[in-house]
Specification:
Blueprint: H1 3-30, H2 40-60, H3 66-91
Helix pairs in contact: 1-2, 1-3, 2-3
Length: 93
């Protein structure tokens, strides 16, 4: 595969992974939640590591259709990041 294609796939994957979480932070800042983005330094890299680990695990288990399980993992880990950011606004931790 060409390099530009792989870079494009990586950018699309990172967009699917991180844009919803960052959008939730922007929404919370708009609602006046103080320090809504305080946990982004921890959440974003953990999302990336969890995605890589789950994709490698699915590959090791021999699941079929790698594109489908990679996309499903990206969406679910992204949704989990949104939920974590949303719940952190309540307890301020």
């Amino acid at each position: 595969m060409s390099g530009i294609f792989l870079v494009s796939l990586a950018l699309i994957a990172l967009s699917i992974l991180w844009v919803p979480t960052y959008s939730m932070v922007l929404m919370l800042k708009g609602m006046g939640v103080p320090e809504a983005g305080a946990g982004l330094r921890l959440i974003l890299p953990l999302q990336l590591l969890a995605t890589i680990a789950l994709v490698l695990l699915a590959n090791a288990l021999g699941l079929g259709n790698p594109a489908a399980y990679t996309l499903a993992i990206l969406v679910l880990v992204s949704a989990t990041g949104v939920v974590i950011v949303w719940r952190r606004r309540h307890n301020g931790a």
